[in-house]
């Protein structure tokens, strides 16, 4: 743009310079050479464009009368401009923020050298306008760029929102919510909608597979439990009534009886878990005093000579199913006994920190490594497979505890240090 701005004045100054000699020759027919020179200078001068000629000894030969005008005189720019010696034919000269196109070339008329002709055009106004336009354009450009950046970021945000929804669904979905998990993306691009549809179909298939697995476990456990209970009954009565059994036969029957009982327990656990997962476990919720319930469980546990130190503070009531909470406590106390040395005590603490009732089952047994403390609530997970098998464990106790407690509005947590023991903490909202 600046090049275009300068091209006009430069060409104009150069044209005036080129035509100067021809113009003087025309006027020479009517007047003397100095008069002709002055005439051409006046003819070509305007408010912005001035001419002057200096002889080789730098004396002024002729100059535009416009140089006497106030606009040229008002500053001392003129002195600087007139005193310039320039070798370049056309150049841009800047004096105190004023811009000039200056063209200097030697002139001669009829082979008589006149000196150097200077043509100067003041382009300050045009330059200022250009700077202003430039500044405005920069501002507009900046504004437009910012607007484009905002529009782009909004567009990208909107375009990514379906992906965010898909991500949210993928992180939130669990086995229990598989059936209800759907994606509704009406305004997403076609490709993303197709992805959402595929994901929906995959979730549907997963939900069906999960449901099928739950039903299968439920049915198999149910079907196997009845004949096994029957076999167990026969084994028990044979062991009790038959006096003619040899020692070997009795030992064999006792092993069969113990294994049958273990399998029945496993099936019962599986059944409980499948029912808890499908939400078909029934809870008979009632307001009870947890202290009385915990005392009952401890008395039950103590028939097995377990040393249980109870610290039961009076608390508010809680709303739970008493049989299910007993099942939970028995499970935790059983584990505490199973995974501790026989001489180590077990502690049960009941307290009410603020609006929660807290029930802690503490042992000083082998403890649980930090990396296993979340996994032990998953079905069939055992920290030490061999030892757990020897204790008759099924790996289903804690998953059932977690589901039962959460179904009754509580939470279960574990704190444990290997070699020092474990603390299982149940929390239920107090009925205030
Ligand atoms: P199991 O029938 O094998 O005891 P659980 O689900 O009750 O199954 O427990 C899962 C695993 O967690 C156990 O196999 C055991 O390794 C570990 N565990 C549970 N309770 C304790 C405890 N009080 N101390 C140490 N380890 C425990």
Task: Describe this structure as you would to a colleague.
The protein has 432 residues and is of the alpha+beta class. Helices cover 53% and strands 19% of the residues. It has eleven helices and twelve strands. It has helices at 2-28, 33-44, 70-73, 77-82, 124-172, 190-241, 247-278, 290-302, 322-338, 385-390, 397-407, and strands at residues 49-54, 60-63, 90-95, 98-109, 112-122, 286-288, 308-312, 317-320, 346-351, 356-363, 411-417, 421-431. The strands form two sheets. Strands 6, 7, 8, 9, 10, 11 and 12 form a seven-stranded mixed beta sheet that branches. A five-stranded antiparallel beta sheet has the order 2-1-5-4-3. Strand 3 (90-95) and strand 4 form a beta hairpin. Helix 7 (247-278) packs parallel to helix 11 (397-407), helix 8 (290-302) packs across helix 9 (322-338) and helix 9 runs antiparallel to helix 11 (397-407). The radius of gyration is 51 Å and the shape is rod-shaped. The two termini are 81 Å apart. The model has no long low-confidence stretch (mean pLDDT 87). Adenosine-5'-diphosphate (ADP) is lined by residues 335-336, 339, 363, 365-368, 376, 381-384, 388, 393-398, 422.
Computed structural class: alpha+beta
Q: Calculate the mean pLDDT score and round it.
A: 87
Query: How many strands?
Result: 12
Bound molecules: adenosine-5'-diphosphate
Could you give the distance between the termini?
A: 81 Å
Q: What is the helix tally?
A: 11
- Proportion of residues in extended strands: 15-25%
Q: Which regions are unreliable across 5 or more consecutive residues at pLDDT < 50? A: none
Shape: rod-shaped
Question: What is the succession of H and E elements?
Answer: HHEEHHEEEHHHEHEEHEEHHEE
């Amino acid at each position: 743009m600046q090049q275009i701005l300068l091209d006009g004045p430069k060409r104009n100054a150069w044209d005036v310079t080129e035509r100067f000699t021809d113009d003087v020759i025309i006027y020479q027919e009517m007047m003397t050479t100095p008069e002709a020179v002055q005439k051409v200078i006046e003819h070509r001068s305007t408010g912005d464009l001035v001419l002057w000629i200096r002889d080789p000894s730098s004396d002024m030969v002729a100059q535009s009368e416009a140089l006497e005008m106030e606009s040229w005189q008002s500053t001392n720019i003129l002195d600087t401009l007139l005193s310039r010696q320039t070798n370049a034919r056309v150049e841009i000269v800047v004096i105190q923020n004023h811009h000039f196109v200056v063209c200097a070339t030697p002139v001669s008329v009829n082979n008589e050298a006149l000196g150097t002709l200077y043509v100067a055009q003041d382009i300050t106004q045009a330059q200022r306008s250009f700077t202003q336009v430039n500044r405005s354009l920069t501002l507009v450009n900046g504004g437009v760029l910012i607007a484009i950046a905002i529009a782009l970021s909004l567009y990208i945000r909107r375009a990514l929102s379906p992906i965010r929804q898909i991500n949210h669904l993928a992180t939130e979905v669990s086995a229990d919510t598989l059936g209800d998990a759907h994606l509704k993306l009406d305004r997403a691009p076609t490709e993303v909608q197709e992805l959402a549809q595929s994901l929906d179909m995959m979730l549907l298939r997963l939900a069906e597979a999960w449901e099928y697995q739950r039903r299968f476990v439920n049915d198999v456990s149910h079907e196997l439990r009845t004949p096994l209970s029957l076999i167990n009954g026969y084994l028990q009565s044979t062991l009790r009534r038959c006096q003619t059994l040899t020692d070997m036969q009795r030992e064999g029957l006792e092993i069969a009886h113990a294994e049958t009982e273990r399998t029945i327990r496993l099936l019962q656990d599986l059944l409980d878990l499948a029912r808890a997962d499908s939400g078909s476990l029934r809870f008979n919720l009632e307001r009870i005093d947890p202290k009385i319930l915990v005392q009952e469980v401890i008395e039950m546990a103590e028939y097995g000579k377990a040393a249980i130190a109870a610290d039961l503070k009076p608390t508010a009531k809680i709303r739970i199913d008493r049989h299910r909470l007993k099942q939970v406590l028995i499970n935790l106390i059983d584990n505490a006994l199973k995974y501790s040395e026989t001489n180590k005590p077990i502690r049960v603490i009941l307290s009410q920190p603020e609006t929660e009732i807290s029930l802690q089952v503490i042992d000083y047994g082998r403890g649980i490594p930090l990396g296993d403390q979340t996994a032990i609530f998953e079905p069939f997970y055992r920290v030490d497979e061999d030892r757990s098998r020897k204790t008759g464990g099924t790996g289903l106790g804690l998953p059932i505890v977690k589901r039962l407690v959460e179904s009754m509005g509580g939470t279960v947590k574990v704190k444990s240090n290997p070699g020092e023991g474990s603390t299982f903490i149940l929390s239920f909202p107090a009925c205030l």
